Amino acid sequence: MALVEMNATFSITSVSDEFVAKLVARKAAVGTSFVEMFEEEDRTRHHHGFVGAATLEGGAAGGAAADNGASSEAEELKDFFNKAPIALHWLSATGKILWANDRELEVLGYSREEYIGADIMSFCPDSRDGVLEIFKELGTGNTIRDVPIRFRTKVGNIKHLLIDSNVNYKSDGTFNHTRCFIRDDTGRILKECRSEVAATAARKLAEGKERFSSKLLHALTALSGLVASVAKAMKFDDGYVVKPVPTSFSLSSLIGEYRNIETARHEVVVQEIGFDASLVVIADAIMIRTVLNELVAHADGRSPVSARVVLSVERIAGGKGGGGAGGGGKFEFRVTDSGEELDESRVEKVFHNYWLGDADVLGGGDGERADLPRLSEELSCDEEAPGLRLNVAFNYVQCLDSILRVASDGSSTTFNFVLDLETSSNGSQGPKREAEEKHHWNKITPSSLPPISPRTSTQSFVGSLYNSDSRHILIVEDNTICQKMCKKIVTGLGHTVDTADNGAIAVEKATAREINIYDLVLMDLRMPVMDGITAAKEIHKKFPELPIVALSAEEGESTKDAALAVMATFMSKPTKADRVGKVIQEYARNPLGRTDAGKCLPKLGA
Which residues belong to any copy of the Response regulatory domain (predicted)? Predict the structure, then answer.
């Protein structure tokens, strides 16, 4: 079907009802492109000598008058192309947009006045070379198919598209205009980005664990104490937690055990501040001892030979058991060393990943550091196991309902945690627990998971990419137990998950690519390195349309108001699977633009 120029407007040759029916039938056929249909109709028209034209856009100046039947056919064709579900446009030889249908304007968000007559280059500025290459190929008389191009929408987003095109020539053989058909390629790009992220994460995970395992094999003969730590770290990594078994014991006696450690390279100075030596508290002594063992061993391996390690316990506030110097309350446990300054943000990563090495903590990156001594010397002074020891300590502290923190300057590093300890009412110590009672491991299992409906195949062309009901969720949570619990809930609901241990990592993951790969973010508020509200603001600078849901155990009105100023909604912790499912269904972004997409976010303030 030839397209001819008439006073700067364009018309479609009048055709028969039979051809209209053929267009509709062939459009629905798999593998048949509009370009092929136009080429075939050009040949058909030339063979039968069809004449006459009816305008598609605007009025036609001149030409033979069409009868009522031809005008009706032309109107049907006009409606067919303007309302077609595939985006269409024509370009002049200089790249001016001569005509575009409703679907193209809808995809890019421009009005007809803003789009028609503009230079195509103004809508794809970073693809200039690609556009020139397309015109060069079309100028040779060739047809292009499935050529990727990037357009900028009215709101400033980048739209990934595929173009099919050929050229309509005038009767004298000169260039008239292009016939371009574009379709959204977001689904394919999104799938590739997500696959790339997953593959990169899997590769780094495998490399980190392989590197750790290799070094551990060399260490086992010299550092037998690591074996127990390895078992604990792997237990936590597999989704287990330790259930505390409270008994009454002397806090002073427990920390006094560290005054004379035969295996330590350094003197351990023990300080008791703000409580009586006779104080008997009720808690899990074995779990507290495990944390202190790991932290003291880590500090002992890091400090210079002439330095010392300081273990201090200070009563900082009243709590369970009442006041008075001999009463219960909040106790801060601190272990300080004199080793090389640690990168606190990297330590947070090591808390969550036991296989990371010393260089990951010191800032060398990827577990490698050129100036480390020989492997045997590294292992003998425990430098290659900070990830292991700190990970175990971090997880045990969480099981004790607290959080392990780190502060490092040029001369020392301190790890600390706070426990609210209850005192024994009669001041007597309970029976000592046997060794076999040490670990009460429980598997993390979310309660009341709703039944998951079988996934049904999608009939649209995007169905082959991924299930239409599945969303890709980023969970941001520094508490590993809560993070794993939330991950089990979300994956149990049929969605895919990525995790971040603090706000800074969340911002890095969410904004690392030009295209947004997440459909929803579940964001904790109180986290080290960067809090959830700050992280949400940073993410929205690049992707304002990404829904972020606040997660917090704090339910005060001020906390909720601060969160809701930048996030879509607020969920209290702990939460149940049915609540999480409803929030995902209501707020999760639809990456392919279906009409059931989640709710819009509140606008950020200045």
Answer: 472-588
The predicted pLDDT at position 197 comes to: 87
Determine if residue 299 is left, alpha or beta; phi over 0 gives left, psi from -120 to 50 gives alpha, anything else beta: alpha
pTM over 0.85: no
pLDDT score at 605: 37
Going by the DSSP 8-state scheme, the letter that residue 573 receives in this structure is S
CATH of 446-450+467-587, one of 3.90.180.10, 1.10.1660.10, 3.40.50.2300, 3.40.50.300: 3.40.50.2300
Dmax (CA) of the chain = 111
Least confident span in 282-286, 517-521, 547-551, 572-576: 572-576
Query: What CATH fold (topology level) applies to the domain 196-443?
Result: Heat Shock Protein 90 (3.30.565)
Q: Is 277 helix (H, G, I), strand (E, B) or coil?
A: coil
Please state whether the peptide bond connecting residue 246 to the residue before it is cis, i.e. omega within 30 degrees of 0.
Answer: no
Contacts of 429 (CB under 8 A, 6+ apart): 248, 249, 250, 280
Every domain range in the chain assigned CATH 3.30.450.20: 3-189
Q: How far, in Å, are 55, 120, 395, 570 from residue 11 at the CA level? A: 4, 21, 72, 56
In DSSP terms, 407 is beta-bridged to 414
Q: Are strands 53-55 and 9-13 parallel, antiparallel or unpaired?
A: antiparallel
DSSP state at residue 394: H
3-state SS class at 439: coil
Q: Which amino acid does the sequence have at 336?
A: T
Reported as a single tens digit per residue, the pLDDT across 158-176 is: 888 889 999 888 888 888 8
Cα–Cα distance between 497 and 486 in angstroms, integer?
Answer: 10
Whether the CB-CB separation of 384 and 219 falls below 8 Å is answered with: yes
- Could you please report the per-residue DSSP string of 585-604? HHH---TT--TT--PPPPPP
Domain(s) of CATH 3.40.50.2300: residues in the chain: 446-450+467-587
CA–CA separation, 417 vs 406, rounded Å? 9
- Residues contacting 177, CB < 8 A, separation 6+: 3, 5, 10, 90, 91, 92, 93, 98, 167, 168
Coil/strand/helix, residue 151 = strand
* pLDDT tens per residue, range 547-571: 999 998 887 888 899 999 999 999 9
Q: Which fold has domain 3-189?
A: Beta-Lactamase (3.30.450)
DSSP states along 397-412: HHHTT---EEEE-SS-
Give the N- to C-terminal CA distance of the chain in Å, as an integer: 54
Beta strands in 437-506 (DSSP E): 441-443, 472-476, 496-500
CA-based nearest residue to 523, from 573, 451, 592, 596 = 573
- H helix runs in 303-439, sequence order: 344-352, 358-362, 375-380, 386-399
Pairing of strands 520-524, 548-552: parallel
